[in-house]
Amino acid sequence: MTAAADTARPSRFRAENLRDILRHGLITVTFCCVIAAALAVSGVGSWSSQMVYSLSIGTISWLVIDTGRLFISGHQNVLWPHGPWGFVLVAFGVVLGFLGGGAIGDAWVGRPLFDFSGFARHRMASTIVITLAATIGMCYLFYSLGRSKHMQRQIDLAQRNATEARLKLLETQLEPHMLFNTLANLRALITVDPPRAVAMLDRLNSYLRMTLSGSRALSHPLSAEFDRLGDYLELMSVRMGERLHYTLDLPDDLRDTPVPPLLLQPLVENSIRHGLEPQVEGGEIAVRARKEADQLVIEVSDTGVGLDAAPRQPSQEGGGFGLEQVRERLATVYGEQGRLSLRPAVTGGGTRVTLHLPLPA
Description:
This protein is an alpha+beta fold. The protein has two domains: about 10-155, no CATH class; about 195-360, Histidine kinase-like ATPase, C-terminal domain (Heat Shock Protein 90), CATH 3.30.565.10. It is built from ten helices and seven strands. The chain has helices at about 5-10, 15-40, 45-75, 85-110, 120-190, 195-215, 220-240, 265-275, 305-310, 320-335, and strands spanning about 220, 245-250, 260, 285-290, 295-300, 340-345, 350-360. Helix 3 (about 45-75) runs antiparallel to helix 4 (about 85-110). The radius of gyration is 34 Å and the shape is rod-shaped. Mean pLDDT is about 75; it is low at about 1-10 and about 310-320.
C-alpha cells in the first residue's frame, strides 16, 4: 500500500467521528440515569449510590468500546471491527466497565474495593445482567446508527453519480444538436455567399476549439457560459448579418457563480430559430443575469415574432428541443429550486425566458 493511498483514505479521527462519539456518550449518560432511577425506585440502594455505580460502569464501558472501535477498525467505512474482534471488544468493555465502575461506586459508598461478599447472590446476578444487557443494547444501537449513516452516504454517492451521468448525456445531446444546425446553415450559405460562409467556418472552428479544449466539468463559472454564448452569437451574426443584434449583461459579482455548461445556448438558439428568423428585419436578443434575494435570475429575451405568431411545435425540426432539455437539466441539478418560465416579452413584442436558480450558500 502506497503512502498516497493511505493519505487518500478518510481519517478515522476526523471531526465527524469524534462528534459521533460525544453523541454516543450523551445517550449513554442518559440511559445510565434512567437505569439508576429505576433501581432506586425499586428499592435497590439509594438514588445517589445507584447513580454513581450506573454512571461509572456505563461511562467506562462507553469510552473503552467507542474509542476502541476506531483503533481496531482502521480506515473501514463502517467503523466497527470485523469478525470476532467486535465481540472481544464488547466483552472487554463490559468487564472493564463492571470492575472499574464497581470500584468507583465502592469508593463512593465506603465499601471495600471488589468486596463481593457483601452482595446477595441475586443482587450480584441482577447487577451483572443489567450491565450486560445495557452495554450490548447500547452497542447494537450505535452500530445500527453507524451502519445506517454509512448506507445513506452510499445512496447519496450513487445518486450523485447518476446525476453526473445524466448531465453528461444531456450535454452530449445538446452539442451535436447545435453543430448539426450550424452545419446545415453553413451548407446553405456556401452557395449563396461564399465569403460569409468562410467567415462562419472560422467562427465555428474557434467555437469548437474552445468547447473541446475545455474540461468536461459538471459546472463552470457563469462568465464562461457568457463567453461561450458570445462566441455562438458571433457565429450566428456571420450568417444573419445586420438582422441579428445582441446584448450580454453579466454583473461582476455573479461572474464566478457555478452553472451547468450549455445552459443558455439552447434558449438563445430557440430565440433565433423561432423568434428572429421568421422576421425579415430580424431583431435583438438580450441575455441578462441578476441576483434576487438568494436566487440567480437569468433572462433571455428577444424582439421576435412572439409566442402566438410562431408557436413552438415539438414535431418540427429542432422545435421545443432547447426548452425541454433545459428544463430537464434544471430538474436534474437543482430539483424544485430550479425553474424555467416562458412568457411574452413585456415591451416590444417577442418572447422572454426566465431561469431561477439557487445561489450557492
